[in-house]
Amino acid sequence: MRAGRARPLRAADMKKDVRILLVGEPRVGKTSLIMSLVSEEFPEEVPPRAEEITIPADVTPERVPTHIVDYSEAEQSDEQLHQEISQANVICIVYAVNNKHSIDKVTSRWIPLINERTDKDSRLPLILVGNKSDLVEYSSMETILPIMNQYTEIETCVECSAKNLKNISELFYYAQKAVLHPTGPLYCPEEKEMKPACIKALTRIFKISDQDNDGTLNDAELNFFQRICFNTPLAPQALEDVKNVVRKHISDGVADSGLTLKGFLFLHTLFIQRGRHETTWTVLRRFGYDDDLELTPEYLFPLLKIPPDCTTELNHHAYLFLQSTFDKHDLDRDCALSPDELKDLFKVFPYIPWGPDVNNTVCTNERGWITYQGFLSQWTLTTFLDVQRCLEYLGYLGYSILTEQEAQSSAITITRDKKIDLQKKQTQRNVFRCNVIGVKSCGKSGVLQSLLGRNLMRQKKIRDDHKSYYAINTVYVYGQEKYLLLHDISESEFLTEAEIICDVVCLVYDVSNPKSFEYCVRIFKQHFMDSRVPCLIVAAKSDLHEVKQECSISPTDFCRKHKMPPPQAFTCNTADAPSKDIFVKLTTMAMYPHARLRCMCTCNRCTFCICQNFLNSDLLQSVKNKIFTAVLNRLRARVAEWGALLLADDGGSITHQVHAVSSVEESVFMGSSHGPLFLEARHVTQADLKSSTFWLRASFGATVFAVLGFAMYKALLKQR
After folding, report:
1. Rounded CA gap, 171 and 24, in Å?
2. CA–CA dist 309, 417 (Å, integer)
3. How crowded is residue 581: how many other Cβ atoms within 10 Å of its Cβ?
């Protein structure tokens, strides 16, 4: 890393402006310093107090507006002084190097006065300014150094001269620097080491930059770090020089030609000790930290406007980033994150974001560890339900930095309004929400856990305090991978507005409980009978003895009355993983809420069902009707032409005309010809029949081809 050539800080990372206050005993040269800076020459006449000076941002080295305020004991009261202290960002205590009394007043008056007006935990940075250095041939630093060691809020000391303009610009540069790059939050001078908060922030930065998670920053990772922080790469020799500096001071700072965490922290300690703490601040602010070493709200929660009736999903780039994050921490390459691996992943978080219920929300392996698919599913769930939380988590992982995007919001796709999907009868969404509704103990939890491939035996091992009201997994519909999110809605007489919002409803009743279906009927009539949300009735615990439901209508008749698919028998009491047929059905209904898909075997994914749905689709019916209408109109036109032709032949008798028609039929169906008249009639009839037969064959062939194509596609997909 290089200490110099740091890129300019972004406006969001800096203070809006810097306010510098000059205080000190009378006649030490406070006003002269300000006027010499502005006019670049020593003023012949000095007023009692200079007016407030504002230096534009494009003039200052740090590119921030700077306000310089003078204090005059003769013209201002103590209350005005206290007000100026409270408004200042940094205070310059000016003394005259040739006046010992003014030096003594630094500790006896000014520092205690300033500290009384500021909080102990947020002391203002102080700059000691020794003016009138042109009047003496010695330095006052021997007297000032003990004072600097006693008061940690003193950033530095500058000796200058307003008369010959010595160190005037440097004085105000250091004052600016003390505000924009304060030493206090980073370093403890008494212990000569970085503060814990700074170490914690730099450790997170190191772990994010260690993209292969091997505990060191190799040359490629160091170059990437250098480029994103300072906008310039390091030459190979410069990289080696950095490592040699670390090797010279600490033994375990470099390992396998890579910079370790100890070496990384040592470099920043060295920068701060040598007065180059702007380098460390540049790194910290690039990774989202403010002056208190906390991640800023602007970094964690970038602006993201979500219109009504729209949902949020992760885009392709976000999934690639999460895939690389999973691979980075899956050290044993078993496609699952062990508790230790998951803990290592969350070291860049200020807290553990996932609780034990996550293991019952997404897919896990036999040992209960979150799989790769479960990892992506949990992120998909968070994005769908709480996108702000997702942005926060991506910020902790350093998404915008590692992907070199402006903010985490670039990882989010906002879907279009659901009303537009219904109008166009198609959707581009990949995540669909299904509310699972039913009475208590009707089998809703079994439905949720079955989506994750868990039978009743595995479900019994789940602790009550680890249960989840959500389950999410991928489902394939017509070869497309979609996410189905199930939400267990607690039994209630009336559902809230939030509990009604979904893409599909799963109404569950217990076949062994005669009173369970009545609740489904009541909820359907209250909330979903007049809505456009598709509903599916699930007869849970179908392995048990079915009893008659104490309801005015049976489940089968209810579904028939409301034009719903028949009740779907379901059980999770199986030897292997439960069937996923109902989940494919639910996802299909969510994707195509406008379609009334009829399926004889109720699976909606076998070849027969796919062909049946295709043949019954509105598109195919529309094409078929248009083709038959065109063919029928063509035939009618040809028949009319034949009739006109026969009537126009006055020279022939009725017998001849009938004979002609018979000959035409014979020529068409038997292939015979009997002269020019019959040849012409035959030509007309064959042309017409060829045209109509072509369209009939084309429509029939297209249908057969589509059916066979679907069958082959599903067969190949099943083999894969």
Report:
1. 15
2. 5
3. 18
Which H or E run includes 127? strand 126-131
Contact 374, 402 (CB under 8 A): no
Give pLDDT, residue 45: 87
What confidence score (pLDDT) does residue 155 get? 87
**CA dihedral sign of residues 451, 453, 458, 462:** negative
- Strands in 258-260's sheet, in edge-to-edge order, are 216-217, 258-260, 254-255
Bridge partner list, 157: 128
- Identify whether the C-beta of residue 301 lies closer than 8 Å to the C-beta of residue 201: no
Residue bearing tokens 């005259």:
96
- Which ranges of the chain have pLDDT less than 50? 1-13, 598-602, 650-685, 689, 720
What is the reported pLDDT for 668?
34
Running DSSP on this structure, what letter comes out for residue 233?
P
**Sign of the torsion angle spanned by Cα atoms 95, 101, 106, 112:** negative
Residue 147 pLDDT: 92
Pair 93, 127: CB distance under 8 Å: yes
* Closest C-alpha to 541, from 639, 623, 459: 459
DSSP 542: T
Q: Could you tell me if 189 and 273 are in contact, meaning their C-beta atoms sit under 8 angstroms apart? A: no
And the tokens for 223?
A: 């170059």
| Per-residue model confidence (pLDDT) at position 646 | 57
> By 3-state DSSP, what share of the chain in percent is helix, strand and coil, each rounded to 5?
50, 15, 35
Smallest CA-to-CA distance from 541 within 435, 438, 403 is with 438
Structure tokens at 50: 């200079």
Q: Is 51 exposed, middle or buried (0-12, 13-18, 19+ CB in 10 A)?
A: exposed
Q: Which residues of 551-578 are buried (b: 16+ CB within 10 A; e: fewer)?
A: beeebeebbeeeebbbbbbbbbeeeeeb
pLDDT of residue 8: 34
- Bridge-partner residues for 159, per DSSP? 130
Give DSSP secondary structure letters for 45-70.
Answer: S--SSPPPEEE-TTTSTTSS-EEEEE
Q: How far apart are CA 124 and CA 117, in angstroms?
A: 10
Buried b (16+ CB within 10 A) or exposed e, 272-297: beeebbbbbbbbbbbbbbbbebebbe
Question: Measured between alpha carbons, how far is residue 662 from residues 125, 302, 649, 668, 669 in Å?
Answer: 114, 84, 16, 10, 10
The pLDDT assigned to 523 comes to 95
CB-CB contact of 454 with 577 (8 Å): yes
Summarize pLDDT for 116-132 with one digit per residue, the tens: 888 776 778 999 999 99
Tokens of 367: 């040992």
Distance in angstroms (rounded) separating the CA atoms of residues 348 and 396: 6
| Short-list 406, 405, 274, CA closest to 2 | 274
Dihedral sign for Cα atoms in the order 687, 689, 695, 697: negative
| Nearest alpha carbon to residue 500 among 468, 532, 536, 470 | 532
- Rounded CA gap, 256 and 263, in Å? 13
Cα–Cα distance, 676 to 682 (Å, whole number) = 10
φ and ψ at 126, to 5 degrees? -120, 145
Q: List the one residue out of 280, 82, 297, 265 whose CA is nearest residue 177.
A: 280
Strand order in the sheet with 568-569: 470-477, 480-489, 431-437, 504-510, 535-540, 568-569
DSSP for 22-50, written as a single string: EEESTTSSHHHHHHHHHHSS--SS--SSP
